[in-house]
Amino acid sequence: MIYTDRYGIPHQAGPQDLRVFREGAFGLFVHRNKILFNIEAHAPDCADVPGGGIDEGENATATVMRELWEETGLRCPPSLLPVKTRQKIVHFYAENTGEYWDYTQHHLLFQHPSLEKIYFDGHRPNPDGYYSFWHPLDNLETICLHHFHSQAIKMISFL
Question: Quick one: residue 75, left, alpha or beta (phi over 0 = left, psi -120 to 50 = alpha)?
Answer without folding.
Answer: beta
